[in-house]
Amino acid sequence: MNVYLLHGTVDDWTPGRMAHQNYVPRPALETYLRQRDRPFAAWCRDATAGDVLTVDDATRAGADACLAARQLGHEVVFFVNAFQIASGQPYFFSLLDAAIDARTVDSVSYAGHTFVLAGAGEIQRFRRSAKTNLASMAVSDALTAATELAQLLGAPEVRVADHQQPLLLNELCRLRAAGVAIENHGWSHVEIGALDDAALVQHVVDGREWLQRSLSVEANLYAVPFGVSDVPMHLQERVGAAYFLCDARLPPRRLSARCWNRRELTTKLQTMNRLSSYISLRAEFYDAGGRREAKD
Length: 296
Ligand SMILES: [Zn+2]
Prior knowledge:
The chain contains ten helices and twelve strands. The chain has helices spanning 26-35, 60-71, 82-87, 92-101, 120-135, 139-152, 169-177, 197-215, 236-239, 266-295, and strands at 3-6, 9-10, 24-25, 52-56, 77-80, 107-110, 113-116, 181-184, 221-223, 242-245, 259-261, 263-264. Helix 1 (26-35) packs across helix 10, helix 4 (92-101) runs antiparallel to helix 5 and helix 4 runs parallel beside helix 6 (139-152). Mean pLDDT is 92; it is low at 292-296. The chain is α/β, with parallel strands linked by helices and 296 residues long. The radius of gyration is 20 Å and the shape is globular. It starts with a strand and ends with a helix. Strands 8-5-4-1-12 form a five-stranded parallel sheet. The chain has a three-stranded parallel sheet with strand order 9-10-11. It folds into two domains: 3-89 and 161-272, Glycoside hydrolase/deacetylase (TIM Barrel, Alpha-Beta Barrel), CATH 3.20.20; 92-152, no CATH class. Zinc ion is lined by residues 56-57, 185, 189, 225.
């Protein structure tokens, strides 16, 4: 059994747009779901039911991916952060992405380095540097820091894109009613490697209790925010029946009794979309050529 990960879909997906880089075009997801030999199965501990699809982060894009999966006959697990839904505040990385897209400066000095924001590589290096610094901050500090970065980028009034806006509680209720399995991504989207034992347990328990209180959901699965820091052995029992990483450095399979490393689907589906765009453009080109020849 494989466990797959997505962050959501957008309708007007555009390559190179920072606010789109973790999402996939909706048609590409729908094509992929229709073409699978077997539908994605519900999570089960003994892993015999088949591959599992998971979607992370409480955004509208994530909700759209979950609904698309349900409409096409697939089971799906949605890992959400309670803080974003309860507060209505966006993820700091959503604000950062919007600010990078809306930048009005050519370079920034940040963390002792000057980033020339001309090529894709340097823009990614800046994003990675900022994201790494903000990921370990308390959630309100990370949002404040992202707002300051928007000013640094010359985009102080920037607004988070619609698809990255946090879900409302009633939208989450509708997803549950549609058969989406709602699970725990922790209270906020913090890097757990920066937390001591007590804070890590609190982060998991607060997320789980909010889901119980607000949605009557028994969330017994946990996806690690950012997906790369393992849960210390002596705390693994406290985070739930199973927990999930997404670490490209490790094999994408079950790593221990409770830990699964997931496969990212995002790049595959983005590539699928580029290929199908290329094929349809090529068809249009020959079609136009054919018509011209006939006319000439
Ligand atoms: Zn996440």
